[in-house]
Design brief:
The protein has 250 residues and is α/β, with parallel strands linked by helices. It has 2 domains: 128 residues, Response regulator (Rossmann fold); 106 residues, Beta Barrel (OB fold (Dihydrolipoamide Acetyltransferase, E2P)). Helix content is 30%, strand content 30%. The chain has 7 helices and 15 strands. The longest helix has 16 residues. The chain is elongated, with a radius of gyration of 22 Å.
Length: 250
């Protein structure tokens, strides 16, 4: 049995999609019918399906955000009433897309393509770069950076900038530190800081940018030394003298 997850926040559409998938693909096992993007991602991690049918516009997490986190872990079929993202996603590697209202013949064509890929043991397309581009565009990414593609071990993942505690650079890489993990990018720190919201992220050292919300306290340890203690992370960060003014009391 081929495991599939369906995600749509509209109950009638979710029911219709499940019915059409079963009709077009009798041997399929729909292991979850998610009501939003968060449930869809949880279902993916729980069941590891071969394919996901994702509505693009959902609460919690959008279909784009779910696809970004799934990466190349499953084939993706986008379901949407808007074709602004779906067409490009299909052309750049998504298994397929279905326009609402979905018709049975279109579902049958999408299923046929999925079955062909699965029969050939074709690996799911890694859409990380595409999702990064679409998500940044959807979030007004020309002004502010919202997503960063980074290396985590032998995987590439998309990181939501809102989840970052701090960025720290060395001669070759920029280290991105999250609450429970960290990743590396080749982008220099100066390129990253240019895209960040200056009210949400402060540069505190030539090699360090920190999320303001992650700062618990600043401790003066001498005339030339100021250290930051973070929430949810044991590492302490040094503040360069030129940035001391950020922590002066008014």
């Amino acid at each position: 049995m081929i495991k599939v997850v369906i995600a749509d926040d509209e109950p009638l559409m979710r029911e219709r999609l499940a019915k059409m998938v079963r009709e077009a693909w009798p041997e399929v096992d729909i292991v979850a019918e998610a009501r939003n993007g968060v449930e869809a991602l949880e279902a993916f991690h729980t069941h590891r399906p071969a394919a996901l049918f994702l509505d693009i516009r959902m609460p919690g997490k959008t279909g784009l955000e779910v696809a970004a986190e799934v990466g190349d872990g499953a084939h993706v079929v986008f379901v949407t009433a808007y074709d602004e993202y779906a067409v490009q996603a299909f052309e750049d590697g998504a298994a397929d897309y279905l326009m609402k209202p979905v018709e049975l013949d279109r579902m049958q064509a999408a299923v046929a393509r999925l079955k062909k890929r699965l029969a050939a043991n074709a690996a799911p397309a890694d859409m990380s770069a595409l999702m990064e581009k679409l998500l940044n565009r959807a979030d007004g990414g020309q002004q502010k950076l919202k997503w960063i593609r980074a290396s985590l071990g032998n995987q590439t993942r998309l990181i939501n900038v809102d989840d970052v505690l701090f960025f720290q650079s060395d001669s070759k890489y920029t280290r991105i530190v999250l609450k429970d993990s960290e990743a590396l990018v080749r982008s220099p720190l100066k390129d990253i800081v240019a895209g960040l919201d200056e009210e949400a992220f402060w540069q505190v050292h030539r090699s360090t940018i920190v999320a303001v919300a992650a700062i618990d306290r600043a401790t003066r340890e001498g005339p030339e030394k100021l250290t930051l203690t973070l929430r949810n992370h044991p590492e302490k960060l040094a503040v360069s003298r030129q940035y001391f003014h950020l922590f002066r009391q008014n």
